[in-house]
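Exercise 7. Given the encoded structure of a 325-residue chain, write a plausible sequence.
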């Protein structure tokens, strides 16, 4: 149970997502208010200095807004003990700096996995049916009928079988796809539960008709799918990325799409973001694109924010959860 005296001295700053629905109400924040003085920032700060002033003296930050916390910013917040992220990805915090400065960082558990997987599955279907291309042709007044891909009976290769990858495997099997997977941590128990088979990455790439990516952002996964891996894929295969843009070498992907080595792609994430106006992916007819919105719906916003608050409360109660550093 929290100490009322300690709670009164604590400052907790919540940076709300300005695009994440209505501001959080008191019912959501009540558990945080029991632990200290809570300030909710709804408008994204315009400058780093403004953000620093808003965060100064904070013991806990709930980061639901698209704000990056690097070494320079963190080093100027000596009282900060914890950042709770309203996301699965942790690339908005310099984790090495947080570790050095003694700042605990927690992220989302798996509550949004079904939401994200549903979006990635939609990208897979849209890429297979060339919906982006056919929509553009019809809007241009042309009746162009390109062949599409029937996915039932085809092989789906799932890279990363955490919560989102596991759900994608289930969705693939639901429409009659055979599922193989690769993971840093393969599990026979999980393979049985999901009805899939773990294989080496090279085999997955060479044998799959569609490949979907569900790995966390890290030094190990940066460039995981590069020119060499794309060349190993089945000619004409589909690639879907809803994890992080840096997992795929974008230049190599554009080359593979233009050469026909990759038949089509469904992308929700990019390197860099936002996608520049003149980026070749914008004019590539074989892709279906969405602007990093896999969990951008009322259910997703609620799951993410509520979990971020719960992680902050757990830390203040002395029982930290979902900690990454």
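Solution.
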């Amino acid at each position: 149970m929290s100490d009322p005296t300690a709670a009164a001295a604590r400052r907790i700053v919540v940076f709300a997502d300005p695009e994440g629905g209505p501001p959080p109400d008191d019912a959501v924040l009540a558990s945080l208010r029991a632990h200290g003085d809570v300030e909710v920032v709804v408008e994204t700060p315009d400058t780093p200095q403004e953000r620093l002033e808003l965060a100064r003296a904070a013991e806990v930050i709930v980061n639901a807004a698209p704000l990056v916390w690097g070494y320079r910013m963190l080093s100027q917040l000596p009282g900060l003990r914890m950042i709770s992220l309203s996301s699965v990805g942790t690339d908005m915090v310099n984790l090495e700096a947080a570790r050095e400065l003694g700042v605990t960082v927690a992220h989302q558990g798996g509550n949004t996995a079904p939401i994200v997987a549903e979006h990635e599955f939609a990208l897979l279907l849209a890429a297979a049916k060339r919906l982006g291309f056919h929509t553009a042709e019809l809007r241009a007044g042309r009746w162009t009928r390109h062949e599409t891909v029937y996915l039932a009976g085809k092989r789906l290769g799932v890279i990363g079988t955490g919560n989102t990858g596991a759900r994608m495997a289930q969705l693939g099997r639901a429409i009659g796809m055979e599922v193989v997977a690769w993971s840093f941590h393969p599990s026979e128990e999980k393979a049985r539960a999901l009805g899939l088979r773990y294989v080496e990455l090279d085999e997955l790439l060479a044998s799959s008709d569609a490949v979907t990516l569900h790995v966390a952002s890290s030094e190990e996964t940066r460039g995981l799918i590069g020119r060499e891996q794309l060349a190993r894929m089945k000619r004409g295969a589909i690639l879907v990325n809803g994890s992080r843009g840096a997992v795929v070498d974008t230049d190599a992907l554009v080359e593979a799409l233009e050469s026909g080595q990759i038949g089509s792609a469904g992308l929700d994430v990019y390197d860099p973001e936002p996608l520049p106006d003149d980026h070749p992916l914008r004019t590539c007819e074989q892709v279906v694109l969405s602007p990093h919105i896999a969990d951008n719906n009322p259910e997703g916003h609620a799951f993410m924010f509520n979990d971020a608050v719960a992680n902050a409360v757990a830390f203040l109660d002395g029982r930290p959860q979902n900690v990454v550093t």
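Remark. The radius of gyration is 22 Å. Students should compare their own answers with the one above.
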